[in-house]
Each structure stands twice: as C-alpha cells, then as structure tokens.
Known about the structure:
single chain, alpha/beta, 12% strand, globular
Amino acid sequence: MSESTPTHKVLFVCLGNICRSPAADGIMHSIVESRGVAAHWKIDSAGTGRYHIGDLPDHRMRLHARRRGYDLTHRARQVSEADFEEFDIIIGMDDANVADLRRLAPSPEAQAKVHAMAEYFAPTARYDYVPDPYYEGSEGFELVLDLLEDSCMRLFERIEEKETPDRQ
Ligand code: 4NP
C-alpha cells in the first residue's frame, strides 16, 4: 500500500464541532505524528449541528488546548452522508451524538461504523460520555481534554495493535 493511502480513517463527531470533536481531532493528530505514523491515518471531525459551520474551535477550547501543546485550527463542518463512506470509524462524543449518527447512517454497514468515545475510556473513568463544555467554566474544558487525551491514546493503541500487529 502506498504511503499516501491511509489505513485508518477516523471521524470524531460532537454537536457544534467547535469544542469536543476538534479537540479529539487535534489530540489524535498529535499522537499519530509523535509515533511517526501520520501517513497511515486520516483524522477529521464534524458536528451534527449547523450552528457553527466555518468557525474555528471555541476560543476557550483553543486556549486550554494550546496550554497542552495542541494548536486547534479546524473549521467546523456538518457531518454528511459521504462521511459514512469515507471513514471506517465514526465516534460520537455523547449519547445524543451517537443516536443522531445512527439515524443519519445511510445503511446498516454505515451504522456499524458508529461508536461512542466512552468505549475507549479507562474502566476507572468517572464519566460514560464526553460532557459538553459549552456552558461550563474552565474545569469543563480541562475535563474534556483529560478524557480525550486518555481515550485517544487508548483508541490509537487499540487500532494500531489490533489491526496492524506486524507494523512496529
Ligand atoms: P461541541 O460544543 O458540541 O463540543 O462543539 C457545543 C458547541 C456549541 C453549541 C453546543 C455545544 N451550541 O449550542 O452552539
């Protein structure tokens, strides 16, 4: 397979695509770059809603992410039917995102690509979804980043180790 063809194609989805999913997108990009496998991955994010199409991530999320070394420059977009063709795994941040994605999925095969971010949380996590920080203070944004840093690493390890055991 050529270097330009990604093996793993992951789409992160939240409501507005300005807080949680662009943060997951930025964290996941950072992980694959630091491991030297960015060419094998296609990573993107989208929202189920239309409110913020074209916007940069929320300034509070950009600030908190920047402090951890993530530069979030994604422009918000709405999830489309084509995403269910393009991506192998589509990960909703909370139960509403997952339910919306399942409803939007154009086929049973597409529906099977939909997962919840919480499937990748540590067994000891205090949450079973990624809470919307939009109406929260700084702690809400820090909590989202804590949950996403941990779960993106688990997602990375699960996919890399299970699907490509021969590549080191
Ligand atoms: P996100 O957060 O889904 O994590 O991007 C939100 C952003 C905007 C709104 C809600 C949630 N909003 O209602 O505008």
